[in-house]
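Justification of computing resources. Each target in the renewal requires a structure prediction run like the one illustrated here; the chain below, 248 residues long, is used simply to show the kind of job we budget for.
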Amino acid sequence: MSAAEQLKLLHELQQIDQQMMEVERFNRSAPQQVAEMEQELERKRQMITDKEALLKTCRERRREKDRELEAHEAHIRKNQERMMAVKTNEEYHAVQKENTKIKELIEDLEDQILRVMDDIDSAELAVKKAKERYAEIESEAQQRIDKLKDRLKIIEKQLAELNAQRDQFVPAIDPTFLSRYNRLRETTSGVAVVRVVNRTCQGCRMNVPPQVYNLVIRDEEIITCPNCHRILFFEPEADTTASEVRGG
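Resulting structure tokens:
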């Protein structure tokens, strides 16, 4: 097989490898994206849980204050009954004094209950807003998660097809050329074969010497860029200097 044919195979192999890189990159990143979105949803759910717990605490405080208030009011009623039965002024004034203190406690409790009621209103509003916000992002996030998961299923099939295509190309490529190609891919971010256009390597954007450029155009052997060492190939339709080199 001629060098030109080998170069064509290497170029086509690189196109397959680049597709595989993109597929594998998505295959690596998508699960992480899914995990991050699911973690964010869980964080929002936990925020709702925390706000609901605060609301529950506020309501329990309200019930506790109500029980205290009922107990104090019951105590006053009991004292009023006692006042009807006391036999001395001292006993009467003692009960009356006790009622005065209890009424002060009741006033303070009523103020506390009002503050707790405000806390309950605020907590209820916070829970409502948190749930509304979660509903908004949950729908959007779930759609994105479902799309990513569906895409991952398709990717698995694409990767298998690309691997099969690659297996068809590799046996036909000279082992020496293939070895050089694989080494270059490791050091050039997966781009081992590049065009040379208007005497410029499209890999490193450096000009190649005229004699090297001429050898690339002749397409009789595998030529590499003197600067970045990538394998060069030539496409006449993309080049405006080929006629100059050929003397046309």
